[in-house]
Amino acid sequence: AAGPAQAEIFAGNASTGLVASGLGKQVAEAGGRGVVGKAAGEAAGDYAPLSAVYRSPGILFTDLPGFTRSVSRRDHALVAPESHSWQPQAGWQHSLVTHLVTPAFPMGAQFAMSLARMSPGGTFTGASTDAGLERLVLVIEGSVRLSCQEAEGHLLGPDQYAFSPAGHVFGLTAPAGALLLVFERRYRAPGAAEANGKAPAFFHSSILERETVVPAGEVYRLRRLLPLSPEHDFNIHVMDFAPGEYLHGKEAHYNQHGVLMLEGQGIMRFGDSWYPAHAGDAFWAAPFVPQWFGALGATRTRFIAFRDANRDPAMGGA
Ligand code: MN
Hints:
By secondary structure, this protein is mainly beta. It is built from four helices and 21 strands. The chain has helices spanning about 5-10, 15-20, 25-30, 50; strands spanning about 70, 75-80, 85-90, 90-100, 110-125, 135-140, 145, 155, 160-165, 170-175, 180-185, 205, 210-215, 220-225, 235-240, 255-265, 265-270, 275-280, 280-285, 290-295, 300-310. The strands form three sheets. Strands 3, 4, 5, 6, 7, 8, 9, 10, 11 and 12 form a ten-stranded antiparallel β-sheet that branches. An eight-stranded antiparallel β-sheet has the order 1-2-19-16-21-15-14-13, with no helix packed on it. Manganese (II) ion (MN) binds near residues 251, 253, 257 and 291.
């Protein structure tokens, strides 16, 4: 069936897309010579996809056998949605996790970024086996109930998140199921003088509650989900672009990135590779890989990005 996009392409032409493409003419000529036959029991051809090839949702590269946009290079990676690998993980009950970034990347990512899908009644317990890990959990869909002494029973919905510092006893339950984005990192404490002896504290908030800033020289809107204070060794950036907006910076910095596109589409550059990207795509970027993004399309583009912070890279370590 001709959708709006197809109607637009052939606007001003009363003919069908088939005729406009030239194929209709060939079919008509062949029919005129009487050479078009149909064997008994043979199904008639359905060539609609040919005439709908432009901007049709009916043909997607992700439907092609064996085709994926996912790549894993020395200094960056793209994990497209068709490459998700959902699996159980200790600590998550009635839940499946797909890892988007882990320390196993070739240049050794210093964090993990995962999606966790909790079935109704699913639970997570986060302190007994991984006391060195700090964790930020953002609700994408559904809701989770917090289990920790600071916010026992508090319900988090979409766009709301919780930060649990290393060693914090922290759990989740998803009464009706949930999809979560999870960032984890082995906490790297600063020197005692650098952070005035302060340690990161548990808190919960929402993307909408965070202050919106426009970084110098840029046009996109930035929200930071964690405080800037020096006891934190990473931050999570939520970046919003209107259609056509792009990064003016062409960064190549020591910080690593894990990026998940939450809305919209555009072109993401890492190194010499330029990736058409849309919501659901996840990226990892090693230190000093040149990077850039431009937003395209009709609606807002939002992505969320991990960025390690506040530690002197000359000190080495993670
Ligand atoms: Mn960057």
